[in-house]
Design a protein that fits this description.
DNA recombination; hpI Integrase, Chain A; elongated; Integrase_catalytic; 48% helix; 3 strands; DNA polymerase, domain 1; mainly alpha; three-stranded antiparallel β-sheet; DNA_brk_join_enz; 5% strand
Length: 309
C-alpha cells in the first residue's frame, strides 16, 4: 500500500493471495475515522465496529461476501436463540447497515479495491424486507420518558449523518435534514418546546456579558412560550450552557441558512422560507428513533425531560 498521495493504493497480492482480515481492518479503520470526523462518540464507534466483527464471526465470511440470507441467519439467531430484545436487534441492524452504507459509498474506493482483490464487492444486506419492524405502531400511547444519555448521543450521531446519506442516495432533502439535526440539538441544548424552536429567529439570540465566550449566542429570548388559556404566549430568557449546542447553531447560521438563496429571518425555515410545520420535525424524529430501534415512549418533549445522572 502507498499513501504518499494521501490515499491508500492496494497492490496485487503475492503468491499467498490478498489478506481479507487485513483489508477488513483497513475498512473498519477508515470507517472509524469517518465517524470521528462526524463527531461520533468513541463508545458508539467501538460498539458499531464490534457488531460488524460479531456478524463476521457468525457468518464465517467477509462482509463483502454477505447476502441478505446471512443477515437473516445472524439476526434470527440473536432474537430466537440468544433471546435478545427486539430493540437490541434493531440497534444491531442499524450498526451493520451504517457500516455497509459507508463501505458501498462511491465517495470511497473500498468496492473498487475489493473487486480487484477478491472478485466481489460490498452490498447492503439490511433491507426493508429483513429489518425488524418497530414493536409499537403508535408511540403516542407509550408512557412518555426521557432519552438516556447513550440514546441521545446515538440519536444526534444519526441525525448528523442523515444529510450525507440523502446526498449520496441522490435524493432531495439534505438541507432540511441538516436543519432538523440542528433543531434537535437546540431543543435539548436550551430546553425548548417544539413550538418555541419553530418560532426562533436570529434576533432572538444575543450576548451574555457573564459568558462572553459564547459570542452572539450567549442567551436566547423565547417569545412564543407556552401560554395559559386565553392568554398571550409567555416570554422568557434562557442562558446558553452547552458550547456544542452554540457551535451547532453558529455553523448552521454561517453555512446552512445562506443555502436558501434568499434572506430569511427564521432560524429553521422551510425550503420556501416559511415556518417549519411541527409534523415535519416530529416525523424526522420518529424515523430516526425507529431506525435506531429505541424502546417506545420518546417524543419531541423527551428532549426536555430530566435524565438522572
Amino acid at each position: 500500500m502507498d499513501d504518499s498521495m494521501g490515499r491508500l493504493v492496494y497492490l496485487p497480492a503475492g503468491a499467498s493471495g490478498p489478506d481479507p482480515e487485513a483489508f477488513l481492518e483497513d475498512v473498519l479503520t477508515g470507517w472509524r475515522r469517518a465517524q470521528l470526523a462526524q463527531g461520533t462518540s468513541t463508545e458508539t464507534i467501538r460498539r458499531r465496529n464490534t457488531q460488524v466483527l460479531r456478524m463476521t464471526d457468525f457468518v464465517g465470511t467477509a462482509p463483502w461476501q454477505w447476502t441478505p440470507a446471512d443477515a437473516d441467519d445472524f439476526f434470527g439467531h440473536l432474537r430466537g436463540v440468544l433471546n435478545r430484545a427486539h430493540s437490541t436487534v434493531r440497534a444491531y441492524q442499524t450498526d451493520v447497515k451504517l457500516f455497509l452504507d459507508y463501505a458501498t459509498n462511491p465517495a470511497y474506493d473500498w468496492n473498487e479495491h475489493c473487486g480487484r482483490l477478491f472478485g466481489t464487492v460490498f452490498s447492503q444486506v439490511i433491507t426493508e424486507f429483513n429489518r425488524a419492524k418497530h414493536v409499537q405502531a403508535d408511540d403516542s400511547r407509550a408512557l412518555k420518558r426521557p432519552f438516556t444519555l447513550e440514546e441521545l448521543q446515538q440519536f444526534f450521531d444519526l441525525a448528523d449523518l442523515e444529510p450525507e446519506r440523502i446526498l449520496h442516495a441522490g435524493r432531495k432533502g439534505a438541507l432540511s435534514a441538516w436543519r432538523d439535526a440542528v433543531a434537535f440539538k437546540t431543543l435539548y441544548g436550551w430546553g425548548l418546546r417544539r413550538n418555541e424552536v419553530r418560532h426562533l429567529q436570529l434576533v432572538d439570540f444575543s450576548r451574555n456579558v457573564r459568558a462572553p465566550f459564547f459570542g452572539e449566542l450567549g442567551l436566547v429570548r423565547i417569545r412564543h412560550g407556552k401560554a395559559m388559556r386565553n392568554s398571550p404566549p409567555k416570554q422568557r430568557t434562557v442562558l446558553t450552557v452547552f458550547d456544542w449546542a452554540a457551535e451547532a447553531v453558529a455553523d448552521w447560521v454561517e453555512r446552512g441558512l445562506p443555502r436558501y438563496g434568499q434572506p430569511v429571518n427564521d432560524l429553521f425555515p422551510t425550503e420556501k422560507g416559511g415556518l417549519m410545520p411541527v409534523r415535519n420535525l416530529w416525523q424526522r424524529m420518529r424515523d430516526l428513533v425507529d431506525e435506531l430501534g429505541f424502546p417506545p415512549g420518546l417524543d419531541l418533549h423527551s428532549f426536555r425531560r430530566f435524565v438522572p445522572a
